[in-house]
Structures are given as C-alpha cells and as structure tokens.
Amino acid sequence: MYDVVVAGGGPAGSAAALTLARAGRSVLLADAGAGPPQVGEALPAAARPLLRDLAVADAVPGPGHLPRLTMLSAWGSPAVAATESVADPHGPGWHLDRGLFDGRLRDAARAAGVRVEARAIVRAPVRRADGTWALALRTPEGRQLLCCRWLVDATGRRAAIAVACGATRTIEDRLIALHRTERPGTERPEAHHPETERPETERPEGASGPALVASAPDGWWYTAPLPSGLVLVARFTDADLPPARAHAGFRRAAAHTSRLEPVTGDGWIAAGDAAATFDPLSSQGILTALATGMAAGRALDAHLAGDRAALRRYAARIAAITAAHRRNRLDHYALERRWPAALFWRRRHIATPPANPEPHDTHPAHFDHSR
C-alpha cells in the first residue's frame, strides 16, 4: 500500500513525488513516457528559488541546456526590442532539453526514495469502501495491481484521472501551435509573406542567437535556439483561422488556456497542466508545473497529517494563479493594436473569453519575455 501514486512523470508529477517522499510518504511515480519529445521550452530565471526549494538547483538545470541571455520582442510595433538577462536579479533562464530536464527531475525523485516506473500508465482506479484506491499499472512487463491512499493527477491537459472522477475542463480559447525544428539560417518562404512577416533580418542568426516573439495579423511567432544546435520555429494562431491549415511540414499541438474544476476531489488532487494550462506567451508553463506540483505535494502531506484546510488552500491558490494569468494575458494582448479588425486579435481584446469553445485538436503568468 502506497501513500500516494503519482500519474505522470513530467515536471509537475516529479515535483509532487519529490515533495511527498521528502516528507516521509511512500510514493510511486508512473511515467508514461509516451508521445514525441517536447522541444523549444524555456524555463525562466524566476524558477531558481523554486529549484532550490526542491533541492535540485544544481542537478536539474546543469549541463545540456542553453542559457537564455537575451529575449527579442516585436509586439505592438514592428520595432524589435531586446531585453538582457543581466537586468534580472535571478540571472539568465534556460532553453531546455526537455528530455534531459524531466529525466533529471525523475532521478532526483528516485534518489529521494520514490519508486519510479518507466513507460507505466495508471489504469482503472477504483475507490474502495475503506477510502483507498485499487488500480492497475500497465507497464511493458505486464499489468501490476496496486493500492494507495491518494492519487496525484499529473497527466497533462487530459487530466485523465480527474475527468474520470467527474471533474470538468473549461477551455478558454482556440490557440494552437504549428511548429518545426530547422537548421540555423534555413530559408522560410512564409517569413516573406505579407500576412506572416517576421522581423527576420533583425534577428541574429545561429542556434546561439536570442529567442524572438513577434506578433502577426492572425497570431504570433516564436523562434528559439535549441540545445541540439537546431532552431525552433513556431506559429501560434487559432485552430479555426486560415493560417492553421497553411503550413506544410509543421507539427500541430494544443496551446489553449484551460482550467479544471474542481482541482481536488475524493482521494485525488491535480497538478501542472492537469489543473490548468496557460497561454504559451507567458513562458510560465514549466515554472507553474513545478510550483503546483510542489504545492500539491505539500497540501497532500498536510492533509494526510490531519490538516483539513490544506486542500482548500491549494484549490484557492490554483484559482488565484488562473485569475492572475487571465488578467495579465488580457493586458499583454491589449498592447498589440495594429490589426483591430483581425479575428484573432478581436477575440483577445474582449474582457470575457468564450465559454469552452471547441479546441479543434487532438504561480501567475507575468508575460515578461526577458526571462
């Protein structure tokens, strides 16, 4: 019998497992390890105190990632503004090798006493009369039957456990990402189209060059160097707009803002993207995953120790994070007024987002690209 089974081996799941194990709880972390590797993600310098709190400040960032020294932005104007990391009291952030980053977090959890199961999926959890869970763990070696007192849902946007337990997910927009990786200096025909033009000539070339965010009539572009030496090119637009169908060779990924209600239930708690997802413009996804994972672990440990208000405080914290993100998202999109008639921008210039639109595809946000 485990105290806690954590479903999901990303940053949120590892942070929750690590926090619980260090509090003396018995924990199993099920890492599905499925899907293509995530690329192009950045960790802001504001994560340094959080990594110290998790006691992984030296081991997890480490070699293999690129420092994020400069951020270029063309937003609200065609002029490109540069922000240097020397202005940040925390120092530079990182362009991450996500596989390396996530693996180091799981290694830290394992070192703290967590049983980490690779390529493992939690299936068919059933709440028993005594208040514990019976579940199946599907692994390459076969099916294992386990019991635990609590479940942490860190399964990402699917929130598979929470939704199966009756929670609902509200989707606030239709944002998607069209992305690909390429060699530095690759000619991009779409960059010269009048409806997709980016300030490419003002962006230093090479994988060690700065990242760039640039708004466009039907969305915005993001380019960033990768630790592999390649460059990520991503276009963000709404799934029902023409640019969503216009780019051959680009992969498509969900990027919408969403929230789960409730974020805790009878024997379960959600963390990371399972609890809420945020506009990628904020660059806060991994930071928030780490923060909510650690907060979920602390709340659950306190609850198991008899603190009946711990889960309510956690739910209130997630609500405050999502409310702050909504305010900051509206403020930042309001800075871009060059295309007032464009549907993408009209949608983001209204105060109330559409209620749960169809997405069309398979810590508060600061919207500060200096980090």
Automatic annotation (TrEMBL):
This is Oxidoreductase. Pfam families: Trp_halogenase. Belongs to the flavin-dependent halogenase family. Bacterial tryptophan halogenase subfamily. Residues 180-205, 358-371 have a biased composition (Basic and acidic residues). One of its GO terms (molecular function) is monooxygenase activity. It comes from the Bacteria. InterPro entries: FAD/NAD-bd_sf, Flavin-dep_Halogenase_NPB, Flavin_halogenase. Gene3D superfamilies: FAD/NAD(P)-binding domain (3.50.50.60). Residues 180-210, 352-371 are annotated as: Disordered.
